[in-house]
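Hey L., structure's done. Input below.
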Amino acid sequence: MLSIRQKTMIQCVLGHPEGISGKQLSEELRVSQKTARNDITMINQSFREAGIQISSAQKNGYFIREEYRSQMIRILEEQRFPKDEKEAQTPIERRMAVLDRVLGRPGIAIDHIAETLCVSEQTIYKDLAYLDKVLTREYAFCGLYVQNHRACLQASEREIRRLVFRILTGCIMRTGQLMPSTLYQLMRGIVNLNEIYTFYEYTVRYCRERRYGIPDQLLAVAAWLIFYTNVRREEANFLEPAECHSCQDELAGFLNYMNQTLFLELESCDLEFIYRFLDGLGFWPADSERRSLEREKNRLLIHEYFKKLEDQYQITFGEEAVRQAFSKDLDDLIRRVKVGSQLQDFPGTASELMSGLACEAAMLMAGLICRECHQVLTRAELRRIAEYILAGGERKQGKVELQLLSGPDRGRYYHVLRWIREKAGRWVLLREPCPGYLLDEVCGSREPDLLIAAEPVDVSSHIPLLTLSGALTGAEERRLRLFLEDIFLRKQLALLKETLLNGRRVLFFEDGLPPEAMLSACCQVLEATGSVEDGQQFWQELMEREQNYPTDREAGCRFFLPWERHAASDGICLGISRQPGPGNGVVLAGAFAPCSEVDPDVTIGLLQSILKTQEAVCQLRDAADAVEVLQILADGMINKYDRR
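Output:
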């Protein structure tokens, strides 16, 4: 399936029988010449089986041979206009087809949907249950009901149209196609699909004539929004006339042009609705004043995020190219959040995402966006942020300070250095290498945690020395990795014992209180011990995050963490219920201060590894006092090291 831009490119080449230069083609499509060449290559690969291609010559540029033109037009038309008999092939397409039959109808019988789609009624009931869950969780839409063997939408037309906008925007933005298969199944019974291409061509023509640098995906979204609004306007008067459209700018001029040119006769409230949606999506010329103001506002939020990353997690980006790419992606994310068209394709449970320092740093951005836009991020968006941090983020504090001794065997030295950076960069802070005769001076000034020599050396030092005699084998790599990880974990364990946990921060509850009440008491203890300034406010923050991103409840132990590191000092409070039962096990509330050496990810990971079984929770529940609880945790950590 060709993308929107590639189809437009074929039309452009077909419109120049004598040929069109790469520079002209890139100017008409508002892309670079390199992008145009890459698209031509992908088009030729797609048409390789058909035996046709776009040719090029130094004199004529790009052209399509006369014997290929009719065949190219036919294939292009087949891709532009889907056949009505195309049926759903995947469960996602089938569920979209079910939603298509429910949209815009007062109610439709379950057996009628099952007969139309050639599946059982039980399958349709399962699809409706799945749709209800997805629409509620990902689109904040709660209007899908099944009553008396009939499915219907009990919501205002405004809410229904907003839902459709968010679904189609997500489909188009993810695939880069004007008619992806899931969107086709959703809309085939609602609108005339062939006319969508007419709207799209008018949209492209208007923006190309004014040389607006707007991505093709947004042009496709604009065409869908205008056309679908026109269809809904013909069916019912559903928006309040008091909502008047009064803006006078590039976007308003575009909407007025489409309304008048295509004789849509949309009401002012319809134009206002479309304007607000496209405004939030970023449908603006690259040099637009409005777009510049939006980018500046987003830039300030992104700058605040990078500042908090450095202050609270000591995460910086050494490569400027990675930082710029990350900033661009965050700018796109903020615009997706404003219109509710976030990425929704991340599978799995919360536990697969909520582990790792990068994911905790991603949660920091989720808190900032929740504050500014009053929206939460999906798991897919959090995963995307975490991957950027893993790829380009560097953490300076809390690592094992490692000093390498340079020697005559430079090849072995660089081999070990490269392995440490690739395999253990998360735990290690590499110092500049030094020769053996400067070892005493360097150790006195830098005080590293470990010395590593790539070949045998004769030195004496109070700091542990690890000598690697030869190239690293698989077994030796594993030993070195575990050795470095153990030093890092022991440093965090020492901080855990010294500053985070003590007898005052262990609570026992004789009654079977719910986890929320236990958490509230833990927050008050953190306030009394000086970790947080306001225990009630801290509890509200923990509950807000829990509501948006629920924690796992395995083995009756739950861990509650804040959005960001802003506590007065590091602290962890354990609440233990004496009463057995689901949800009445162990509650942990963690507070972490900025710029501290405690790594929340490692600290919580240590406790999770100890309390991941029901047996461990029962041991804490049966403990006599806080001293015994701390001893149980200490023994669990020792056993963890022994197993390693």
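Confidence is low (pLDDT under 50) at residues 346-354. The longest helix spans residues 474-500.

-- N.
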